[in-house]
Amino acid sequence: MTNQLDALKQFTTVVADTGDFKQLAQFQPQDATTNPSLILKAVQKPEYAPLLQDTVAQFRGRPMDEIIDRLLVRFGREILATIPGRVSTEVDVRLSFDTSATVTRAERIIELYQAEGIHIDRVLIKIAATWEGIKAAEQLERKGIHTNLTLLFSFAQAVACGDAKVQLISPFVGRIYDWYKKQAGASWDEAARAGANDPGVQSVTQIYNHYKRFGIATEVMGASFRNVGQITALAGCDLLTIAPELLAQLAASDAPLQRALNADAAKTMDLPAVNYDEAGFRYALNEDAMATEKLAEGIRAFAVDAVKLEKLILAA
Q1: Cα R_g (the chain), whole angstroms
Q2: Is residue 232 a contact partner of residue 8, using CB atoms and an 8 Å limit?
Q3: Which residues of the chain have pLDDT under 50?
Q4: Per DSSP, which regions of 223-266 are E strands?
């Protein structure tokens, strides 16, 4: 019998969502993604503490932002030694509303990877999908630096990313689900809002179908999952980035798994063409209370973890 993880890999590129590169080999993912919270979590584990200490010792006295980038690249290098594909490395989320600073920081991260002998095509620069972040990604893509637009909660963000010709987007399934579940309170019906009816799954499905219908080359990578049902409901998505605990659950299950998303079917759908200028984008995002709140909350949370990481570096 094929387990669900192997079955999923027939339809979808499986990506590991972790900074814990010692866990990667058992699941054999194609790519891996990191973020400030995942790196913070990893460096607090005893097995990764020397990696933090070595990086700090080597570059002590350099600006904090440079030490952070060197630490992120060190993790990325270790991850790339374990996987055949790409690693996503995030630009400091505190630059989410500064296009030029995001471009500058992304270019330095790429230069650090190249200095380690890593090809540019094996790195995706993660940037929050604000208007400024999307514009930064557009500039980077024109320079041959590929991007992964993260903290993506709305159709408007996805449309703007497609227009900017970014390499990949990471719509956040679980955080969308969290918001709607919290809003519903006691009236939330878990069974009725599971699988294809899950609001996070519905968001990714809409984006995927739009991209395929209009021939948009940007890859769709569902992210931030709360349960295996959300993952199996998106089988067929270009990529899915999955935490090790959920990868283990998929590997342990032999329940049947069917393709849920289909590019050929999407191409025949009667969907309206949608595009946004800056004013239209900002208004559409503002109209979506969930996306507005979750984008702001996500940036704040990653910023808090970036500060915690800085404190660990100062203490090392």
Answers
A1: 19
A2: yes
A3: none
A4: 239-242
Rounded to the nearest angstrom, the gap between the alpha carbon of residue 147 and the centroid of all alpha carbons in its chain is: 10
Which residues sit opposite 87 in a β-bridge? 32, 123
Question: What pLDDT score does 25 carry?
Answer: 87
Alpha-carbon distance of 154 to 156, in angstroms, equals 5
pLDDT at 36: 83
Dihedral pair phi/psi, residue 125, rounded to 5°: -85, 120
Cα(258)–Cα(86) distance, rounded to whole angstroms?
A: 26
- Choose among 255, 216, 222: nearest CA to 237: 222
Q: Structure pTM? A: 0.96
Q: Which residues are known catalytic residues?
A: 126
Helix (H) or strand (E) holding 172, with range, is none
What region, left, alpha or beta, does residue 171 occupy, with left being phi > 0 and alpha being psi -120 to 50 degrees?
A: beta
Q: Does residue 166 come out as left (phi exceeding 0), alpha (psi in the -120 to 50 range) or beta?
A: beta
Extract the tokens encoding 158.
Answer: 């996805």
